[in-house]
Design brief:
37% of the residues lie in helices and 18% in strands. The chain is of the alpha/beta class and 294 residues long. The chain has an eight-stranded mixed β-sheet, with helices on both faces.
């Protein structure tokens, strides 16, 4: 499984505070793995054994389950929550073909089927790149999927404003340069208010970027969901940050696109939040997610 090289991480107060918060979240979780042809996909579960319906979370590009760290406890009050590391990201091993979203979707769907009790339907929520990948997961699950909730997802072929290009990680960067890169990219893409880039967000971004092997950006730009969503039989809903950098000022186009789907079930906008709405405004996001997920 991918590991962060020590030379990329500064050992200071920022790192210590972030690692303590991650460790605390994991003390409440159980770890599961599902098979890949080249290794394992890693899942962390909150509320396992509660008997509550299963909800599966897929994170964004160059991310990991930590994208959901401010949501898993609240969601676990209503669901058995499985937050997965998409193959080739986080702690999961790489898929055989890192540029094949359909294969990645099939492998994730296989994992969800293995983890979900046979008598139960699954719920799925995908953020950004994870939303696009969810569009590939859903057809493989068929009637076993009860609902799909997209969070700040692309893949709809709709207008967006091009912001400044994200900085690229290079293997010869020193830890301080990598941290500066991580902060810049978070401020450009993920949040509305730069003050919300705290020690946890910064540490998570460094960890995720330096071990990512699945290149998600070009997959996120594919109009994959245009053809896939109308064919699904599960209920479909959406959650977007009010100032999502990938959608603003064209958020209404996302809402209108989804509202025309045969199984559309709702759309919520999280105020004063950017792309990473579930971190920047976790309270409102959690309430919206619990309201929408059926």
């Amino acid at each position: 499984m991918p590991k962060v090289e020590d030379r990329f991480i500064l050992q200071d107060a920022v790192t210590s505070a972030a690692e303590a918060e991650i460790k605390n979240a994991l003390t409440k979780a159980l770890k599961f793995t599902t098979p890949l042809p080249t290794g394992e996909m890693v899942w962390h579960a909150w509320g396992k054994g509660s008997g509550k319906p299963c909800l599966y979370l897929l994170h964004g590009g160059y991310g990991s389950w930590i994208h959901w760290i401010r949501n898993v406890d609240a969601l676990a009050s209503h669901f058995t929550v499985y937050a997965g590391d998409i193959p080739g990201l986080g702690d999961s091993d790489a898929p055989p073909d890192r540029r094949n979203p359909d294969e990645i979707g099939r492998l994730i769907a296989n994992g969800i089927e293995l983890l979900t009790p046979t008598s139960e339907q699954a719920r799925l929520m995908g953020f950004s790149f994870g939303g696009v990948i969810s569009g590939y997961v859903a057809p493989y699950l068929g009637p076993r999927l009860k609902s799909l909730t997209l969070v700040g997802a692309s893949g709809m072929g709709l207008r967006r404003v091009e912001f400044l290009p994200l900085a690229r990680f290079e293997r010869d960067m020193d830890p301080r340069a990598i941290r500066c890169l991580a902060r810049r990219n978070l401020e450009l893409l993920m949040v509305r208010d730069p003050k919300t880039v705290d020690s946890l967000a910064l540490h998570m971004q460094v960890m995720n970027t330096t071990r990512a092997v699945t290149k998600s950006r070009w997959i996120s730009r594919l109009p994959s969901l245009v053809d896939k969503l109308p064919k699904l039989t599960c209920s479909i809903s959406g959650i977007w940050g009010e100032f999502d950098s990938t959608s603003f000022p064209y958020l209404a186009e996302r809402r209108n696109f989804m509202a025309k789907l045969p199984t559309f079930s709702g759309f919520e906008v999280i105020p004063d939040a950017g792309h990473w709405a579930m971190y920047e405004n976790a309270k409102d996001f959690n309430n919206a997610a619990i309201k929408l997920i059926t």
